[in-house]
Design brief:
The protein has about 350 residues and is an alpha/beta fold. The protein folds into three domains: about 70 residues, Alpha-Beta Plaits; about 80 residues, 2-Layer Sandwich (GMP Synthetase, Chain A, domain 3); about 170 residues, Vaccinia Virus protein VP39 (Rossmann fold, 3-Layer(aba) Sandwich), CATH 3.40.50.150. It contains ten helices and 17 strands.
Length: about 350
């Protein structure tokens, strides 16, 4: 154990402090992060500057620089090390670089070159990650009205249902029955942090509730209408509302977003979430109808493929809003969320409409 400088913060604020410390590049990655019943201790390489400390406290007011004893981080065995004697050397470079962990399920995309060895690769992933009980291979893209994809079990138990923990929330999900992406964790937290007490939010394509539940977990006085057309997704959404104790704040609704807003949720929302990147443009008029006459915020997710650009997407979105009888008052925020394919990205635009 080695006493060293660290950032001390409440466990519930750990994700925010970790994100800020990562951006500042001050974390000592040779040491293991420690925790007790109340606090999280993040080892740092050196004493933060006044500006760095100011940045940290702008994220979480209750964090301090302290001294704590840390064990040295153990170097994990990599999949390549486990597979060196089991795969031809020329195929080691083709191993999947990214693994999505949803609860105790690992999801990978296997290149065709490894088709004959995919069960061996699955067993290596299982062996390397002790908390994983199932390794699934993606079989094709997300498709259909319910946004589902097929999977093949590569190793472990033949299960697709799990419990995923994210940002102090728990989500029950069956990845074969309802869409869920752990890569949107930052977006779930970011959007939830923007919601103010007293707001009404309409989540047009809520899935199992990662946006809706996170919002209600952060705010005591909010009303979130969480809509999805997939019956299985809404069933899990209802369960997640209960287990996260946000009953009365999140209202699961089964049905088509267009019809639901038309019949029940016209002009009620301070904020609308549109996480349906492949078809979101088709529902801009629905979001505009849900927003209060006085205006509100839309979180719009879409895909960009080269040679398209963020500026062109902003122009298309502004035009769609005008055609819906509203106007874009301001572009509040935009970013590339993740790469989804070569030369393709999922992006988000936050806009204020009047």
């Amino acid at each position: 154990m080695k006493p060293t400088n660290c950032i001390k913060t409440l466990k519930r604020e750990g994700q925010k402090v970790l994100a800020a410390a990562n951006k500042l590049d001050i974390i000592n990655r040779k040491l293991e992060i420690q925790r007790d019943k109340e606090f999280l201790y993040i080892p740092i390489r050196k004493q933060p500057t006044k500006q760095q400390l100011k940045t940290l406290k702008s994220q979480v007011r209750d964090c301090t620089v302290s001294i704590y004893s840390f064990p040295t981080r153990k170097t994990p065995i990599t999949s390549i090390q486990l597979l060196q004697n089991k795969l031809p050397p020329n195929l080691l470079a083709n191993l999947p670089r990214a693994v999505d962990f949803i609860g105790d399920i690992a999801v990978v995309e296997m290149p065709p070159e490894l088709d004959a060895y995919k069960s061996i690769v699955g067993e290596a992933i299982l062996k390397r990650n002790r908390k994983v009980r199932t390794v699934l291979e993606k079989k094709g893209p997300v498709s259909g009205t319910y946004r589902l994809r097929e999977f093949e079990v590569l190793a472990g138990e033949p299960e697709t249902e799990t419990i995923h923990k994210e940002n102090d929330c728990r989500y029950y999900v069956d990845v074969a029955k309802a869409y869920f992406s752990p890569r949107l964790s930052f977006e779930h937290r970011r959007v939830a942090s923007l919601v103010k007490e007293g707001e009404t939010v309409v989540d047009l394509f809520a899935g199992v509730g990662p946006f809706s539940v996170q919002i209600a977990k952060n705010r005591q006085n909010v009303t979130v209408y969480a809509i999805d057309v997939n019956p299985d997704a809404v069933e899990y959404l209802g369960k997640n509302v209960r287990v996260n104790r946000v009953i009365g704040r999140v209202h699961p609704i089964l049905g088509d977003a267009r019809q639901i807003v038309q019949s029940r949720l016209s002009s009620v929302a301070d904020r609308v979430i549109m996480n349906l990147p492949e078809r979101a443009t088709e529902f801009v008029d629905v979001a505009c109808k849900a927003i209060k006459p006085s205006g509100g915020t839309i979180h719009f997710y879409s895909f960009i493929r080269k040679p398209d650009s963020m500026e062109k997407l902003k122009a298309r979105l502004a035009l769609a809003v005008r055609e819906s009888g509203r106007n874009v008052e301001g572009n509040l925020f935009s970013r590339f969320v993740r790469e989804t394919a070569p030369c393709e990205w999922q992006v988000v635009l936050d806009i204020r409409i009047s």
